[in-house]
Amino acid sequence: MALLDVRSISKSFGAIRALSDVSFSVDAGEVVGLMGDNGAGKSTMVKLIAGNFPPTEGAIVVDGKTCHFHRPVEARAEGIEVVYQELALADNLTAAENVFLGREIKKGFWPFRILDKQSMIERAGELFAELKSETRPRDLVKKMSGGQRQAVAIARARLSNAKLVLMDEPTAAISVRQVAEVLELIRRLKSRGVSVMLISHRMPDVFSVCDRIIVLRRGSKVADKETATTSPEQITGLITGAIREA
Q1: What's the pTM value of the predicted model, to 2 decimals?
Q2: I want to staple 223 with a disulfide (CB 3.0 to 4.6 A). Which of 25, 30, 117, 215 is the partner?
Q3: Reduced to 3 states, what is the DSSP secondary structure of residue 168?
Q4: Bond into 111 cis (ω within 30)
């Protein structure tokens, strides 16, 4: 049984049809690339899975359970986390404080409960060690590289025991060395049995870490191929429309 099963999803915004009858699945521990040109429907699909709004038609099934998400907190409760390109980190806080932002550990008894900073630092350190990241819990986010920032965002997703992490353009606008760090983080998630859906324009990144590649064009799925059975040239043709479908 698939971890995520997207069944005949369509989404309209008034007269605009952003997605039309799209179906695909993601297995546990699988890394799936979602590719397509601007306006292909990638962002809409991510927001549907993440619970930002419901589909117009179709169903989202998680672990065999049909889900009706209207808010991100509902998707999060089913083990779905999103790491957006902007990351939404607080630059003035430490890595540990960002990992636990909104989910702080407290100690003591009401009304004298206080933050248990040491427990949060220790747990964040364990998560960074699990991801084999050089990020340190006490470091300020504003002093971090792009790769380290991604590690903080992914550690936050791991904190909630996410089953599926949606990553929106995680390697955009970072250095070659930092790209390698982020791709290794994705491999670490896979090794832990966490599924990843990678939304990216970067062909080398997708072919480096993804088991399968799904291509959307103008709101429709035109390909769902195992990475080993396709090529960057074929995927490019599918994205641009030079190849109709595969």
Answers
A1: 0.89
A2: 215
A3: strand
A4: yes
